[in-house]
Write a structure and sequence with these properties.
7 strands; 5-stranded mixed sheet; Nucleotidyltransferase, domain 5; two-stranded antiparallel ribbon; 2 domains; DNA-binding
Length: 296
């Protein structure tokens, strides 16, 4: 593990959520494209049938730029029929609602309502075949498996924070708070290890959240990084007694810069970033002393 000062320099949770949503959109589109090809050919990929109208002839890659990122889907090529996908065009028109439904699944779990929302948005009102339904169930089940997966490796460093997410119910939009934990493994890899929707940022909510992480196998925590939320600080001390608590750099910088005049805010921000970017504690203290001298 590199002995550098931990710092949060990007919205880790949003970045990871976008990555997972893009991955799931790719899986869903690929399975629906295959189902469209089966409809046009009149048979499954390797099925022998007297009603077959065309044959598969491989596939080609099509890149799409979407709200959550870039994705690449496998578009079937047919021999004996022209393949024009309606699924991709439907997705382009309903991209936001599809991705919103997937985000809801990651945050609150898979629900029949959200599954139906995605199916109707991409497949239309007609019922998908049993084969396609079974394939999509496997895709969606992976989301719940991710939410409850065992935490099988130690996470020496864990970032915890409460984030706000906008969700829609019947056309109305509301802000929902949720605790999020991002773990850093022994190899330095960062991943979202837990998220819970509909919880407040109080001691009871943090106790329930961290207890659920421990039940899934959270171990080896040496440092927790978060804001100065009293409920979080006290809960970490109670449930993770071997871990030290460090205030999040982003929250710390925001608090300092709120006290700095606009004329000096750019200089102050650059100075703080330089301090936090130091390789060692000694280098950070020396840089902080230099900045303090310059301010006099």
């Amino acid at each position: 593990m590199p002995k550098h000062i931990l710092q949060v320099d990007q919205p880790l949770f949003e970045t990871e959520l976008d990555r997972m949503v893009t991955q799931k959109v790719t899986q869903i589109l690929n399975r629906m494209l295959d189902a469209e090809a089966d409809d046009l050919t009149g048979a499954g990929r390797y099925e022998r049938s007297d009603t077959r109208k065309a044959y598969r002839a491989g596939h080609y890659r099509r890149d799409l730029t979407v709200k959550a990122g870039k994705l690449s889907v496998k578009v079937p090529k047919l021999k004996g029929a022209l393949f024009e996908s309606a699924v991709i065009e439907r997705y382009r028109r309903r991209e936001e609602s599809v991705e919103e439904a997937l985000i809801e699944m990651y945050l609150a779990g898979v629900s029949t309502r959200r599954v139906d929302d995605i199916s109707q948005a991409l497949w239309g009102e007609r019922m998908p075949s049993q084969t396609l339904s079974d394939q999509l169930k496997k895709v969606y089940s992976q989301i719940d498996q991710w939410r409850t997966r065992p935490l099988s490796q130690p996470y020496p460093y864990v970032f915890m924070d409460g984030v706000w997410h906008q969700r829609s119910w019947g056309g109305a939009v509301e802000n929902v708070s949720m605790p999020v934990a991002i773990g850093v493994g022994l190899d330095g890899h960062r991943e979202v290890v837990g998220v819970a929707e509909g919880m407040k940022e109080d001691a009871v909510s943090w106790q329930n959240f961290i207890t659920s992480l421990i039940a899934r196998g959270l171990t080896g925590v040496r440092l927790v990084v978060g804001d100065r939320c009293a409920g979080l600080v006290s809960t970490v001390g109670e449930l993770l007694p071997r871990a030290r608590y460090q205030r999040c750099m982003v929250h710390f910088m925001r608090n300092i810069l709120s006290k700095v005049s606009r004329r000096h805010s750019r200089w102050a921000a650059d100075a703080l970033k330089a301090i936090f970017a130091s390789e060692t504690r000694q280098a950070a203290l020396a840089k902080a002393e230099s900045v303090a001298t310059e301010m006099e």
